[in-house]
Each structure stands twice: as C-alpha cells, then as structure tokens.
Amino acid sequence: MNKNLVSFLVFVVGLAVFHNAIFPIFTPKPVGWILNRYV
Questions:
Q1: Strand, coil or helix: what is 5?
Q2: Which of 2, 11, 13, 31 is 20 to 30 A (C-alpha) from 20?
Q3: Are 31 and 22 spatial neighbours (Cβ–Cβ below 8 Å)?
C-alpha cells in the first residue's frame, strides 16, 4: 500500500474524530451542528 495514502487516511480519520469528539465540547451544540454541515 502507498505510504502517502495511508498517511492521508490517518489524517482524514483523525480530523473526523477531532470534529466529532473534541470540536463540539468548545462550541454550543447548535453552532457546532451548523458549522459541521459547512466544514
């Protein structure tokens, strides 16, 4: 498997986990939900 592809997949998964687990903690629920639709 391509090493760059693996790194990219890890980055995407990490970003998704960050948005779903960490980001909503620092923002009100409605604001986080609206931003999540556009980000």
A1: helix
A2: 2
A3: no
pTM: 0.46
Place of tokens 């890890």: 10
Question: Which residue intervals of 1-39 are DSSP H helices?
Answer: 3-17, 23-26, 29-38
pLDDT digit string, tens, across residues 1-39? 789 999 999 998 888 877 776 666 665 666 666 666 655
Q: Are 23 and 32 in contact (CB under 8 A)?
A: yes
Taking the C-alpha atoms of residue 7 and residue 20, their distance in angstroms, rounded to an integer, is: 20
pLDDT of residue 7: 93
At 11, the amino acid letter reads F
